[in-house]
Design brief:
By secondary structure, the chain is α/β, with parallel strands linked by helices. Helices cover about 40% and strands about 10% of the residues. It is globular, with a radius of gyration of 27 Å. Belongs to the histone deacetylase family. HD type 1 subfamily.
Length: about 475
């Protein structure tokens, strides 16, 4: 028993970080979710990843602290650093993100930016004078706040500071900690933010279009935590949700209002304009000392944290792509011998997903090719001057079937001018678009077979990794 108590004391486990059955599995789940989300961002298969079970920002290297056991924020940032030269950490929990700041206090590759209550309040760190050390000097940003912080004041300082941080630091990825104990009415907090004010900060970070890992954090009035994270998730994925609470198994928890947005209290805001302006000026002055683009020595990137199942799935995708394109090539040769004759439309190599096909083949711009949050697909036909947008309808039970019927409607509306049998098209230089006045000779092809091939290709866009989509797009460009 004595040894057991000694180990508990050694790792600060016991009072605010109690031991419970399943603790190790709990830490594994939320920490691996943040690491896996960061790996998704690194691979380009997502623009925004949400892990509301994470955000345990007080955990230290050798001890638990403040209800936090394993600091998934630090682990997620370390994963992001495998691909991105600079990572920005933003914390809007009412408590200072001391564990994350401590982990990166001496590096210029990570900037930590925390908006929190300061003074006689846990964890007691996060003074404005805490700006980093050594190479990390000026890369720790702390905005100490007082009780009663309201929406107008908080969003004002947040936008002012984050805009300057983005300008001077230019991060390649962001980890946003969305602790909701800064909301009005929280059992442990003393701010007066509404869910809309809290979410405005999330929406502002999203507006920079930088790969972002969103994690949870504190929040001790559970029904308000659920309200805030639900609303913020809707903003992140671009879905409008009603204020009236829909009936569900937990409907009674949200009474008596049964609404998403609640009024704030009438507590006094001790953050005077003069105080906030003084803090902003000091932070802006520190940010002017930041290197515009911190240099990073060349090094071999560490292996990704992608799980083995994903690697095996990617290998299977490559094999399927190779086999499918061989089948398509055989069908195209069969179509050339079929004897059916139609007039081929003008076939200039247009841009795919806002890029030239050559850029797609070179994998130059993953994020411009695919918006994973909106889940949209651009199909560009040779005779079109602009791309056609095919959104996924929420009620569609089968995305493949939905894409198939949308492609049918598009092709019927455009007159069926796709010619995939013309040798001149197949052998054209993908990186050099043809001139609009370049006429293609008439070639015979089976329109139904051509559309069947196109439909098969379209169907294969669904549920694939970004790398495989890029590879497949380049091959489709060769056929077109």
């Amino acid at each position: 028993m004595h040894e057991y108590l000694r180990q508990l004391q050694r790792f600060n486990v016991g009072e605010d970080c109690p031991v419970f059955d399943g603790l190790f599995e709990f830490c594994q789940l939320y920490a691996s979710a943040s690491i896996g989300g960061a790996a998704k961002l690194n691979a380009g298969s997502a623009d925004i990843v949400i892990n509301y079970s994470g955000g345990l920002h007080h955990g230290k290297r050798s001890e638990a602290s403040g209800f936090c056991y394993v600091n998934d924020c630090v682990l997620g940032i370390l994963e992001l650093l495998k691909t991105h030269q600079r990572v920005l950490y933003i914390d809007i929990d009412i408590h200072h993100g001391d564990g994350v700041e401590e982990a990166f206090y001496t590096t210029n590759r990570v900037m930590t930016c925390s908006f929190h209550k300061y003074g006689e309040f846990f964890p007691g760190t996060g003074d404005i004078k805490d700006i980093g050390h050594g190479d990390g000097k000026h890369y720790a940003v702390n905005f100490p706040c007082r009780d009663g912080m309201d929406d107008e004041s908080f969003t004002g300082i947040f936008r002012s500071v984050i805009s300057k941080v983005m300008e001077h630091f230019a991060p390649g990825a962001v980890l946003l900690q969305c602790g909701t104990d800064s909301l009005s009415g929280d059992r442990l907090g003393s701010f007066n933010l509404s869910a809309k004010g809290h979410a405005d900060c999330v929406a502002y970070v999203k507006s920079f279009n930088i790969p972002t890992l969103v994690v949870g954090g504190g929040g001790y009035t559970l029904r308000n935590v659920a309200r805030a994270w639900c609303y913020e998730a809707s903003l992140l994925v671009g879905v409008d949700i009603p204020d009236a609470m829909p009936y569900n198994d937990y409907f009674e928890y949200y009474g008596p209002e049964y609404r998403l947005h609640l009024p704030v209290s009438n507590m006094e805001n001790l953050n005077t304009p003069a105080y906030l302006d003084e803090i902003k000026r000091s932070i802006h002055e520190n940010l002017r000392q930041v290197e515009p683009i911190p240099s990073v020595p060349f090094q071999v990137a560490p292996p990704s944290a992608r799980i083995q199942e994903e690697k095996e799935a990617a290998a299977r995708d490559r094999e399927e792509d190779d086999q499918h394109m061989m089948d398509v090539s055989g069908e195209r040769q069969h179509a050339s011998r079929s004897g059916s004759h139609h007039t081929a439309g003008r076939c200039s190599v247009q841009s795919w997903f806002g890029m030239e096909v050559g850029r797609v083949a070179n994998k130059c711009d993953v994020r411009a090719m695919e918006n994973t949050n909106a889940q949209v697909l651009f199909i560009i036909f040779p005779s079109c001057s602009k791309s056609q947008l095919l959104p996924v309808h929420p009620a569609a039970k089968s995305r493949k079937r939905y894409y198939y019927h949308q492609a049918c409607r598009l092709r019927a509306r455009m007159g069926g001018v796709l010619d995939i049998t013309a040798p001149e098209v197949c052998s054209s230089d993908l990186t050099t678009p043809q001139k609009e006045n370049d006429e293609q000779p008439e070639r015979g092809y089976d329109s139904r077979l051509a559309f069947q091939i196109l439909s098969n290709i379209v169907n294969r866009f669904i549920s694939r990794t970004t790398a495989n989509r890029l590879r497949l797009l380049a091959r489709i460009g060769a056929l077109l």
